[in-house]
């Protein structure tokens, strides 16, 4: 029986469990990205194999899928509202051949962050544009100004306000951020810092502060690596940042060396997780330097995250790493498992494979 005659030629998504083993093979072109955002992986890979796009354009195509699909509610418009209820976007592209970078941060009222980052890369001599001025730049480049708020993001924000603005990212301020929505001011030597509600009676109990939690559905990034058949290495990210963030906050995703890093002579890495912590250690750069020293992709990723865990043992994060030849791996910390998506080879109908790596545990 000719199975090819009866089996539809469709792209299958397989789930393979990588139990701390680097099940990778060397084949170009390669697309690998954080999480099981397989539609983005497929679009980027087909852009290389069918569309014959450049590595940069393939990465933009892939990350744009997640921006449109609002992957896990943490990429693109309508997610992670800040304290004012506004969604803002961060994105980064690094070209590992030219070592040029284009990034946007706290981008307002523009849905296509990764495409705007490409214009920063190709149409300016700058590395990053931020805030409302980045919006003005995007409009000059032909993008439409439009709200990023949706009914769902407004509902999330209203629920957060109803819950006394818990959790939040304030510390060492009055009134107490464990029960108040502010406005805040720094604690001084004469400040009274009781955590009671202003209208509470003597029998009222103190409100315990709620710490922000980091995970796939409230603080996530698509981090993608694209390597074309000629070994041109590109890496990038797109995210809407941390939910309930203080307006103006920028995390690790658009920061070169932290959110992503690429070098066509070595390889690339892209990270996701608790960006306020991770950006202090430049894990993507550390991972690429690990490759340069001869580590495998998985070990290079583990070494980069171990540097963070030494100082912040409870942080949450993951990283994907690939060599210029197409060997790849991933590492993670603080989660149970970390899925990532891979497509490689020259066949237009190449399979998107979702792999899972077990993570280093948080401190007990």
From TrEMBL:
Gene3D superfamilies: (Glycosyl)asparaginase. CDD domains: Glycosylasparaginase. It catalyses: N(4)-(beta-N-acetyl-D-glucosaminyl)-L-asparagine + H2O = N-acetyl-beta-D-glucosaminylamine + L-aspartate + H(+). One of its GO terms (biological process) is proteolysis. It comes from the Eukaryota. Its EC number is 3.5.1.26. InterPro entries: Ntn_hydrolases_N, Peptidase_T2. Keywords: Autocatalytic cleavage, Disulfide bond, Hydrolase, Protease. One of its GO terms (cellular component) is lysosome. It holds the Pfam family Asparaginase_2. One of its GO terms (molecular function) is N4-(beta-N-acetylglucosaminyl)-L-asparaginase activity. Heterotetramer of two alpha and two beta chains arranged as a dimer of alpha/beta heterodimers. Cleaves the GlcNAc-Asn bond which joins oligosaccharides to the peptide of asparagine-linked glycoproteins. Belongs to the Ntn-hydrolase family. This is N(4)-(beta-N-acetylglucosaminyl)-L-asparaginase. The lineage of its organism: Eukaryota, Metazoa, Ecdysozoa, Arthropoda, Hexapoda.
């Amino acid at each position: 029986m000719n199975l090819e005659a009866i089996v539809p030629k469709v792209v299958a998504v397989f789930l393979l469990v990588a139990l701390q083993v680097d099940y990778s093979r060397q084949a170009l072109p390669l697309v690998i990205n954080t999480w099981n955002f397989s539609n983005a992986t497929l679009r980027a890979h087909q852009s290389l194999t069918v569309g014959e796009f450049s590595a940069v354009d393939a990465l933009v195509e892939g990350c744009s899928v997640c921006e449109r699909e609002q992957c896990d509610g943490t990429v693109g418009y309508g997610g992670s509202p800040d304290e004012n209820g506004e969604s803002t976007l961060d994105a980064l592209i690094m070209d590992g051949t030219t070592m040029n970078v284009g990034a946007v941060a706290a981008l307002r009222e523009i849905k296509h962050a990764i495409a705007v980052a490409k214009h920063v890369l190709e149409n300016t001599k700058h590395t990053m544009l931020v805030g409302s001025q980045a919006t003005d730049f995007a409009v000059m480049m032909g993008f439409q100004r439009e709200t990023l708020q949706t009914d769902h993001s407004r509902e999330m924000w209203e629920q957060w306000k109803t819950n006394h603005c818990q959790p939040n990212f304030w510390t060492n301020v009055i009134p107490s951020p464990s029960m108040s929505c502010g406005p805040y001011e720094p604690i001084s030597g004469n400040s009274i810092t009781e955590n009671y509600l202003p209208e509470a009676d003597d029998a009222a109990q103190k409100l315990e502060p709620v710490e922000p939690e980091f995970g796939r559905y409230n603080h996530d990034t698509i981090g993608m690596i694209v390597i074309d058949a000629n070994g041109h290495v590109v890496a990038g990210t797109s995210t809407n940042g941390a939910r309930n963030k203080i307006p103006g906050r920028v995390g690790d995703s658009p920061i070169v060396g932290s959110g992503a890093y690429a070098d066509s002579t070595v390889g690339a890495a892209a990270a996701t997780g608790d960006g306020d912590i991770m950006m202090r250690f430049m894990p993507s750069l550390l991972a690429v330097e690990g490759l340069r020293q001869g580590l495998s992709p998985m070990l290079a990723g583990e070494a980069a995250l171990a540097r963070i865990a030494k100082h912040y043992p409870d942080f949450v994060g993951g990283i994907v790493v690939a060599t210029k030849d197409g060997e790849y791996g991933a590492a993670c910390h603080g989660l149970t498992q970390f899925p990532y998506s891979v497509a490689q080879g020259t066949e237009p109908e190449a399979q998107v494979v979702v792999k899972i790596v077990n993570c280093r545990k948080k401190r007990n």
